[in-house]
Amino acid sequence: MYGIFMESWVILKNYGGTGFLLLLYVIALGYLLICEKNKYVRSIFVYAPMLLIFGFLFPVSRKLYVAVLNEGNTYYRVLWLLPVSITLAYTGCSVIYRLGKRFERNARWISYAGALVGVAVIMLAGKYVYNSPHISKAENAYHLPQEVIDICDTIEANEGEISYNYATFPGDLVYYVRQYRTDIGLSYGRDMVEPVWGYGIWNEAYMAIEGTDEIKAEELVEITRRFPDEARASRFIILRDSKPIDQPLDELGLTFLGQFGQYKLYEDPVVTERMKEIY
Question: Which of 36, 117, 145, 188 could crosslink 32 through cysteines, CB 3.0-4.6 Å?
Fold first, then answer.
């Protein structure tokens, strides 16, 4: 039980980021517990969150969560129910209001100064998000990598008589393709790419393109021409330059359609002819 408690405690600390914002939240809870007279406000901003935090740290709660949902990796989402931002905002306004009532002659300036101080304190409690490696400047109106858009547009331009196309993309592009186009079938989706689920080992196309240090070209083409069945074989294959391959796909009869950033797009004429007959 102690081990489960400590795991939940670590999750709570990680949720607090640098810890400064979580500290402000604890101070706000203490302030409202002592100074707030409205029982309804106390119930929403103090009692309910305190009960939630207690339940989150209580080992039995986590056991029940895992038993009912059969999912332990999402337990941190319980903390999303904490009204941190609105509690801090309400507490700040409450403090400014009380100071204004006490010093009525300067109430206006107190409200201005209090707002500036409150904003500054909250800003200092966090980090500059644009320094994160996970955030990059938008390349287009879709907020997607431009390579994905260019590849999908090229596939569309080569559709011809075929109304629905299948493609095998590198794992790092799977997340974006479906956001831009819904009519491109994928050999595998996000469920195969997420390491925490580990489903990729059951997908032949994923293992052929991502499961080895070097792609075996003949093996990859053999799989994409029949996987998951002949009617949904990959007409297009996209390869990442950084992933080694034992021989270029155009040596196996595939058509090179273009280089898009660090990705190469190929069309398989064997699958194309088959799809013309099916579709």
Answer: 36
